[in-house]
From TrEMBL:
A Pfam cross-reference name: CN_hydrolase
GO molecular function, one term: hydrolase activity
Keywords: Hydrolase
Entry protein name: Carbon-nitrogen hydrolase family protein
Length: 278
């Protein structure tokens, strides 16, 4: 068996970079002390701020963001691979002051291996009355990413991307054997959809799905679902936090399970062209 120990960090990220780093760093250290080789944090690891003016004031390029820089150094210090599930940073597009919601993968030498900007932004009107327009503050990306790791390809997604199966299928066909889904799911959608979507994406792709989440009542007024989860390629839940409290979730992955699932149901090789309904 080819094994990998992963750790998913569940956070309740504060509204400032200094507080966010003080919150997440001890959890990452706990994960490394527990033997994790690959550690993943949730969406919005560097801060969560709804107020537009305060958010704009907190933005920095990812190579100058205080949390990104500190976590890059921490990965090197601990000798672990670290996925910053996402950091809210400047997009770098002149004339567009919206942020990028960016995943950043750091290797065990503190080198950036890959980055990915969230493709699908969360513009929804929920039955509870919650209204979200992420597109007003976040510039969506336009490039899917599979990062090379010592354990196979890691497909990068963020939160709302989970609702787009075509993205996950493309990642699997491009070499992903694991897919990261760092998230800050709302409570009503988390309760209704979180686990079933994660399991569906694992089953459809024959990939491990690694979903570290934000959880609880945040400083900026939002509430997130928590329940960080690891799904195996056959679709079974192999690790899960059953709450929204900050913490560390460990899982030992049998990486040979990817080949077993895909050999049993080789759906990634069964695509057929078809005509759309008239």
């Amino acid at each position: 068996m080819t094994a990998l120990r992963v750790a998913l960090i569940q956070t309740r990220t504060p509204a400032s970079a200094g507080a966010a780093l003080a919150h997440v760093e001890p959890l990452i250290r706990q994960a490394a002390a527990g033997g994790a080789q690959l550690i993943l944090t949730p969406e919005g690891t560097n801060f969560l701020i709804q107020n537009r003016e305060q958010r704009q004031a907190a933005l920095a390029p990812d190579d100058r963001d205080a949390v990104v820089l500190a976590l890059t150094a921490l990965a090197k210090e601990l000798g672990v691979w670290l996925l910053i599930g996402s950091a809210i940073v400047t997009s770098g597009h002149e004339g567009d002051d919206r942020a990028a919601n960016r995943s950043i993968l750091i290797d065990d030498h503190g080198r950036r291996v890959a980055s990915y900007d969230k493709l699908h932004v969360y513009d929804v009107d929920l039955p509870t009355g919650e209204r979200w327009r992420e597109s007003a503050a976040v510039r969506p990306g336009d490039q899917a990413v599979v990062a090379d790791t010592p354990w196979g390809g890691l497909g990068l997604t963020v939160c709302y991307d989970i609702r787009f199966p075509q993205l996950h299928r493309a990642l699997a066909k491009a070499g992903a054997t694991m897919i990261a889904v760092p998230a800050a799911f709302t409570v009503p959608t988390g309760e209704a959809h979180w686990e079933v979507l994660l399991r569906a994406r694992a089953i459809e792709t024959g990939c491990f799905v690694l979903a570290p989440a934000q959880g609880g009542a945040h400083e900026d007024g939002r509430r997130t679902w928590g329940r960080s989860t690891v799904i195996a390629p056959w679709g079974e839940v192999i690790a899960r936090l059953d709450n929204d409290e900050p913490g560390v979730l460990f899982a030992d992955l049998d990486l040979d399970a990817v080949a077993r699932a895909r050999n049993a149901v080789p759906q990634l090789t069964h695509d057929r062209d078809f005509s759309l309904p008239a």
